[in-house]
Design goal:
36% helix; isomerase; 8-stranded parallel β-sheet; Aldolase_TIM; alpha/beta; single chain; 228 residues; D-ribulose-phosphate 3-epimerase activity
Length: 228
């Protein structure tokens, strides 16, 4: 089971985004949070910055759209250079159609769930996706503490993926650090968004490697991975 570490640019120095992107070029993806101050109470960056980032780094961009009307905007982020686009289940009017459109444009399609949104009601949609993102904090701000009460939801999501025999990545975002990543990996995640744990480190690239090693060891010993 391949472990993927996606540093969150939200925790980087916005005045030096190109340099900060290059500082983690050993990462699997660069996680980019797009917030509109409507779906979540924060405003970050948009299409022009994503276009610039895609030219500034060879690391593929993992876009997390915390915005209203992703049905309209998500395809434009693929065209701006995103290799993966995540929309929120709570915001999408037609999630199946949107996922298919993202895929048709050549990117991976992913769906995110807020902490209070159950995974079970979206079970039938899973085959339309390449990744599911379980938020382990309330979306909107970086640097929040990890919510342990989300671990059972991660486990249930992994069970649904196995039930349907899907090749579906399971991402977690929120409070992922050296002290929490092993628990999330054991629960079933294999893609990890890390913000301050990477960009707050003296050596961000070394922090990525450490987190990957920790998660890999936890997954290797996890019952869900041993069944594969």
């Amino acid at each position: 089971m391949a472990v993927q570490i996606n540093p969150s640019i939200l925790s980087a120095d916005f005045a030096r985004l190109a340099e900060e992107a290059r500082a983690v070029e050993g990462a699997d993806w660069l996680h980019v949070d797009v917030m509109d101050n409507h779906f979540v109470p924060n405003l970050t960056l948009g299409l022009p910055v994503v276009e610039s980032l895609s030219r500034a780094t060879d690391t593929p961009l993992d876009l997390h759209l915390m915005i209203e009307d992703p049905d309209r905007w998500a395809p434009q982020y693929v065209e701006a250079g995103a290799g993966s686009v995540t929309f929120h289940a709570e915001a999408a009017a037609a999630p199946v159609r949107l996922a298919r459109e993202i895929r048709a444009l050549g990117a991976r399609a992913a769906m995110a769930l807020k902490p209070g949104t159950p995974i079970e009601q979206y079970e039938d949609l899973l085959p339309e996706l390449d990744m599911v993102l379980i938020m382990t904090v309330e979306p909107g701000f970086g640097g929040q503490s990890f919510l342990d009460i989300m671990l059972p939801k991660v486990r249930r999501t992994r069970e649904l993926i196995a039930k349907h025999g899907l090749d579906l990545w399971l991402q977690v975002d929120g409070g992922v650090s050296a002290t929490t990543i092993e628990r999330v990996a054991e629960a079933g995640a294999d893609v990890f968004v890390a913000g301050s744990a990477v960009y707050g480190a003296v050596d961000p690239a070394a922090a990525v490697r450490t987190l990957r090693d920790q998660a890999g060891a936890a997954i290797a010993a996890a019952p869900w991975a041993c069944d594969h």
